[in-house]
Structure formats: structure tokens, C-alpha cells
């Protein structure tokens, strides 16, 4: 098959391409569900991985983004984003098949080998990423970016729920009834994930590509252009600070629930499903708001909710009754799902909007490379801090004594992973402050957005009540801190 870009695409070709990209997303989501996240963490824990190795695995998908410089060179050399994306996607799926086959043949595999082989999976995926993003920017009409990708996200997350729950039942059944076969189940997941990834690449191979504008000039000067763009530089600063703050804690949620809470895979996947459902139910709403107002406004609304969930993780396990801890985990996962739906969608869209069409690959590659460094360092720092705080703790209790009654209430407790959660919350709060400097085309004044969203509350209270309350949350925190700092002049 000859993958040649076309100067113009008909409406029928665009629609067919957008449908194929949804097929790519579904197959790719199946691959991701089987070979990453909870199941990957559970597998390496079964192989006796330590906190540093878990942090290293969490950082691999991002540190390999530094190789996205190859995307820039390949697009300049061939001006064929589809060919680069499809070929690299096929190469990225092959390591998954290798891991699965090695486990089936040898019945075990060192954690170091898993990390080494997965490096190539993420390496080729990183090279394909910017080409795919730039391709989608030209394929999908800008007026419907938010609605289309929110719809695609809702489909992929729906599939994630079904596959995740089914796989969790299989893993837990094997663990309790045929424990010697548990590692073989993970081998099967990697093989199935590799096959699903090949199907994803096949969908992309049939998707049409509009002809892109080839960038001209010296490669070093080209890579400096995004850094000379002041507004894009502000976006890079916020994005880097945000991913560093959140990735200190995120990779260790599953480890905490498995090692400290003793929860089974089914419970953990169940909580993830709650998070996915909340994300599905709100992502279309976030997409509509992003198209109507701005992506920056959506981030400003969703980020405070995510910060609250990070603080909430510090209280997991503090209650003596197990059902209270499970209920808190359910609430936290729901909040994370709602917040992440808005943040991830808006970060993708605002990056696309601030990238000039003729240099989108360069801009997106630069963003991914810079944020990759922070995303990689964060879980390594988190792993080190988890080990450092493993023999340190903070406990605050309230005690009541009387002649006939005594009661101790745990108010606050920090130990090992919980230190990470609190540190991540503080750093995330600082990161949100950097969002103010980013300017987005079509941005609506915040006061007007408040007025518009609150008017919707009256007609649809159930859908918008939480959003309406979150609008002022970050401002309230910021003003409270400034009142405590002498000599600080409040900004309007």
C-alpha cells in the first residue's frame, strides 16, 4: 500500500478517516488496558519489583518522548505523517508480543528485562505520537476538535471498563484457584495487547492524510521556534509543572492499594471503572464547554478538584471500619475521573490550538520532549521519597477521656506513600498558578464563564452543581494563603 498524502480531502474522506481513527482508539485502548496501569504494576510486583523499579516503569512512557526529535526529522525528510505513524506503531507493538512469549516459554522473566524490552515499545510509540497528533490536527475540523475527541474518549473508556473488569475477574480467579498460572495470565494479556495494537495500526494505515506543509530551515533553528513563542513557552511551563506534581504520586496509587490496603485486583479495577465512568459521563460536557469557552477555563475548573482528591488520599486507611475506607476510595476515584477528563482533554486541545499548522509537529514534539523530562523524573523522585518515608510517620489524634468513656479519633496520618500524595497536592496547587500566564484564542473572561455556567445550574442542577462550586475553589485557596502572607498585595 502506498501511503501518499492528498492535497485536498472530500467531506466523505474526512468522515471515513474520523471513523477509522475511532477504531484505532478502541484497539489502542485494548492494548493499553492489557499491558499497562494496574495489570503491569501487578505483574512486576509478582516479579518482586521495588519502588524505584516501579517508578522507572512509570517514567518510561514519558522519557522516551525525548526521541520525538526523530519525528521532526522524518516528517521533514519524507513529509508523510501516515507512513511514519503506521510503521512506528507496528514496531511499537512487537515488544509486547516478545514479553508475552518470553514469559510463556521461560515461565518467568526478570524485572530488568521487562523494563529493557518495554523501552522499545515506548520508544517507537513516542516517535509515532507527534506525527499522529499533527495528522489529526489537519484531519479533524478545528471547530469540532473538543466534541470529536471527547466522543472518541468516551468510546475508548467504555471499552476500558468492560475489558478491565473482565480481565480483573480472570486474574483474581487465577490468583485464588490456580496460583501457579497467574504469570501465564499476564503473558496472555501482553500477547492479546500486542495483537490489538497491530489492529490499531491497521486502522491508521487506511486513514487518509491531508498534505502537510513542510517546515523549512535549519533543524536547530526550527526546534527553537516554539521556545521563542512566549505564549507557548508559558504553556510548556504550566504543563511541565503539572505533570511533575501529579506523577510524583500517580504511579503509586495501585501499589498503595495492593501493598498497604491489601485490596484485590478486582477491587482496584472496580475503582478504576468508577473513575472511567465518571470521566465518560463528564468528558462530553467538558468538550462542549471547551468549544464554547476555552480549554484554559476547563483546566482552571478541573485542577482544584484533582488537588482535593490528592489530599483525600492521605485519609485512606485512617478509618478502623473497612467500608469507610472503601467508600472514601470510591469518592476519590470518582473525583479523579471527573477532573482528569477535563484536564487531559483540554491540555491536548490547547496544545493543538497554540501550534501553527505548518509547524505543528515541531511544536508538539518540543512540548512532549520537555514535559517528558519532568514526567520521567517525578516517579523516580516519588519512588525515592516512598523509601525515605517508609520509616517515618506523622499522626494527629483527638482524644476524649471520661470516667466511663474513652475515645480516640484519628484526624490525620502520613506514612510512606501518603507523604507523596500530600507533596503532590502542594506542588499541583503551585502549578495551577502558572496557568494564568497562558493566553488562548477565543478565551472568555472568567467572570462571564461563571455567569454562563451558573445560569445552566438552574436548568440542569444535577449536571452542573459540582462544576459551579469548583469555579471559585482555587481562587478561595489562593486568597486564603495571601491573607496569611505579610506584604503581599492581592491581585484582582
Could you give the topology of this structure?
Blueprint: H1 11-35, H2 37-46, H3 51-63, H4 69-78, H5 81-106, H6 111-139, H7 145-177, H8 182-205, H9 219-228, H10 230-247, H11 253-260, H12 265-292, H13 295-313, H14 322-353, H15 360-388, E1 393-401, E2 406-415, H16 417-433, H17 446-459, H18 461-470, H19 473-484
Helix pairs in contact: 1-2, 1-7, 1-8, 3-6, 3-15, 4-6, 4-15, 5-6, 5-8, 6-15, 7-12, 9-15, 10-15, 10-16, 12-13, 12-14, 13-14, 13-16, 17-18
Descriptive overview:
With 492 residues, the chain is mainly α. The protein has a single domain, classed as MFS general substrate transporter like domains (Growth Hormone, Chain: A). The protein has 19 helices and two strands. The chain has helices at residues 11-35, 37-46, 51-63, 69-78, 81-106, 111-139, 145-177, 182-205, 219-228, 230-247, 253-260, 265-292, 295-313, 322-353, 360-388, 417-433, 446-459, 461-470, 473-484; strands spanning 393-401, 406-415. It has a two-stranded antiparallel sheet with strand order 1-2. A hairpin with a 4-residue loop joins strand 1 (393-401) and strand 2. The radius of gyration is 23 Å and the shape is globular. Mean pLDDT is 84; it is low at 460-471 and 488-492.
Overall geometry: globular
- Report the mean per-residue pLDDT as an integer: 84
Strand segment tally: 2
Strand content: under 5%
Oligomer: single chain
Helix and strand run: HHHHHHHHHHHHHHHEEHHHH
Question: What is the domain total for the residues?
Answer: 1
Largest sheet: 2 strands, antiparallel
CATH C-level name: Mainly Alpha
Helix content: over 70%
Distance between the termini: 59 Å
What low-confidence regions span 5 or more consecutive residues with pLDDT below 50?
A: 460-471, 488-492
Count helical runs.
19
CATH overall fold name: Growth Hormone, Chain: A
CATH superfamily: MFS general substrate transporter like domains
CATH architecture label: Up-down Bundle
Amino acid at each position: 500500500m502506498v501511503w501518499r498524502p492528498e492535497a485536498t480531502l472530500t467531506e466523505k474522506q474526512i468522515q471515513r478517516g474520523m471513523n477509522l481513527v475511532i477504531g484505532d482508539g478502541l484497539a489502542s485502548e485494548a492494548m493499553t488496558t492489557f499491558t499497562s496501569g494496574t495489570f503491569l504494576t501487578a505483574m512486576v510486583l509478582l516479579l518482586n519489583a521495588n519502588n524505584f523499579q516501579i517508578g522507572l516503569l512509570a517514567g518510561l512512557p514519558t522519557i522516551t518522548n525525548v526521541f520525538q526529535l526523530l519525528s521532526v526529522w522524518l516528517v521533514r525528510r519524507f513529509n508523510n505523517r501516515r507512513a511514519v505513524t503506521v510503521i512506528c506503531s507496528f514496531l511499537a507493538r512487537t515488544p509486547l508480543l516478545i514479553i508475552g512469549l518470553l514469559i510463556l516459554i521461560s515461565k518467568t522473566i526478570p524485572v530488568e528485562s521487562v523494563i529493557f524490552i518495554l523501552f522499545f515499545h515506548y520508544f517507537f510509540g513516542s516517535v509515532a505520537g507527534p506525527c499522529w497528533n499533527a495528522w489529526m490536527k489537519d484531519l479533524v475540523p478545528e471547530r469540532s476538535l473538543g466534541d470529536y475527541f471527547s466522543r472518541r474518549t468516551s468510546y475508548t473508556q467504555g471499552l476500558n471498563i468492560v475489558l478491565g473488569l473482565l480481565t480483573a475477574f480472570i486474574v483474581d480467579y487465577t490468583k485464588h484457584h490456580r496460583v501457579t498460572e497467574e504469570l501465564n495470565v499476564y503473558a496472555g494479556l501482553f500477547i492479546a495487547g500486542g495483537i490489538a495494537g497491530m489492529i490499531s495500526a491497521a486502522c491508521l494505515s487506511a486513514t487518509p492524510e491531508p498534505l502537510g506543509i513542510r517546515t523549512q530551515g535549519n533543524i536547530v533553528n526550527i526546534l527553537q521556534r516554539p521556545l521563542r513563542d512566549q505564549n507557548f513557552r508559558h504553556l510548556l511551563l504550566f504543563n511541565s509543572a503539572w505533570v511533575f506534581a501529579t506523577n510524583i504520586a500517580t504511579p503509586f496509587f495501585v501499589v498503595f492499594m495492593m501493598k498497604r490496603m491489601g485490596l484485590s485486583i478486582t477491587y482496584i479495577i472496580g475503582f478504576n471503572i468508577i473513575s472511567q465512568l465518571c470521566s465518560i459521563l463528564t468528558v462530553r460536557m467538558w468538550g462542549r464547554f471547551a468549544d464554547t469557552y476555552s480549554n484554559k477555563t476547563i483546566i482552571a475548573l478541573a485542577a482544584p478538584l484533582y488537588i482535593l482528591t490528592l489530599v483525600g488520599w492521605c485519609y485512606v486507611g485512617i478509618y478502623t471500619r473497612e467500608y469507610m475506607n472503601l467508600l472514601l476510595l470510591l469518592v476519590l476515584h470518582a473525583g479523579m475521573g471527573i477532573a482528569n477528563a477535563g484536564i487531559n482533554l483540554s491540555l491536548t486541545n490547547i496544545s493543538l490550538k497554540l501550534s501553527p499548522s505548518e509547524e505543528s509537529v515541531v511544536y508538539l514534539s518540543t512540548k512532549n520532549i520537555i514535559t517528558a523530562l519532568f514526567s520521567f523524573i517525578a516517579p523516580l523522585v516519588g519512588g525515592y521519597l516512598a523509601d525515605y518515608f517508609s520509616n517515618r510517620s506523622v499522626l494527629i489524634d483527638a482524644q476524649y477521656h471520661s470516667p466511663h468513656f474513652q475515645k480516640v479519633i484519628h484526624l490525620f496520618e502520613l506514612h510512606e506513600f501518603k507523604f507523596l500524595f500530600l507533596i503532590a497536592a502542594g506542588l499541583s496547587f503551585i502549578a495551577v498558578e502558572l496557568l494564568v500566564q497562558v493566553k488562548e484564542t477565543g478565551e472568555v473572561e472568567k467572570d462571564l464563564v461563571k455567569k454562563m455556567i451558573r445560569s445552566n445550574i438552574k436548568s440542569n442542577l444535577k449536571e452542573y452543581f459540582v462544576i459551579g462550586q469548583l469555579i471559585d475553589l482555587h481562587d478561595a485557596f489562593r486568597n486564603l494563603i495571601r491573607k496569611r502572607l505579610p506584604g503581599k498585595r492581592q491581585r484582582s
